[in-house]
Amino acid sequence: MKIGFVSDTHGCVESWRRAVTGPLAGADLIIHTGDVLYHGPRNPIPATYNPPALAEMINSAPCPVILCRGNCDAVVDQLLLRWPVQEPYALVYLNGLTIIATHGYKGEKQEPLTEDDLLELARLYRSRLVVCGHSHAWRLKEKEGVILLNPGSTSLPKEGPGTVARLEGNKLQVVTLDGEQVLAEKEIAL
């Protein structure tokens, strides 16, 4: 089974297309950790910004898509998206693996969730993998037996090129959007 992880597309059609035809091609499931359609008031507008077209591409994805609500996502976005936009997180139970996916912020000030916040969620739901976005910077780290993953941003990365992550078998990787470079890799016990 192959699972793709995407975050912070911010309405950018081209970055989604590159992800699903490149490093996430053939995925059985895609988990999107939020900021799906809107660019947000603090971000520049991506070059291929087209929220209705992105919604249609997500709706016609060749596999199920799990969507988390990000701080730039609005309730009205659900009118365009076939897949439910879940908040504050989505729980995925798959082949003995519990995955918690969230955008990664808390409160009215939209402060990023801390590692301790993510570990608390992992303990609560007995999860070995917690995935979040929000920071636009990828990370892959293991702490207290829990793998913390941020796939980065496909369209507005803070550092370097756009990134996504994929779990294939028991190998979890963060890869560049073109799929040519593996930036980090970790084995996960299933």
Distance between the termini: 12 Å
The description of the largest β-sheet is:
7 strands, mixed
Shape: globular
Radius of gyration, taken over Cα atoms and rounded to an integer in Å: 15 Å
Q: How many strand segments? A: 14
Strand residue percentage: 25-35%
Low-confidence stretches: none
H/E series: EHEHEEEEEEHEEEEEE
Secondary-structure content class: alpha/beta
- Which bin fits the share of residues in helices? 10-25%
Order of neighbouring strands in the sheet with most strands? 4-3-2-1-12-13-14
Explain what the structure shows.
This protein has helices spanning 13-21, 51-59, 115-125, and strands at residues 2-6, 29-32, 65-68, 85-86, 89-94, 97-102, 105-106, 111-112, 129-132, 139-143, 146-150, 163-168, 171-176, 182-187. The mean pLDDT is 95. Strand 7 (105-106) and strand 8 form a beta hairpin. The chain has a seven-stranded mixed β-sheet, with no helix packed on it. A five-stranded mixed β-sheet has the order 5-6-9-11-10, covered by helices on one side. Strands 7-8 form a two-stranded antiparallel ribbon. With 190 residues, the protein is of the alpha/beta class.
Would you spell out the secondary-structure blueprint of this structure?
Blueprint: E1 2-6, H1 13-21, E2 29-32, H2 51-59, E3 65-68, E4 85-86, E5 89-94, E6 97-102, E7 105-106, E8 111-112, H3 115-125, E9 129-132, E10 139-143, E11 146-150, E12 163-168, E13 171-176, E14 182-187
Parallel strand pairs: 1-2, 2-3, 3-4, 6-9, 9-11
Antiparallel strand pairs: 1-12, 5-6, 7-8, 10-11, 12-13, 13-14
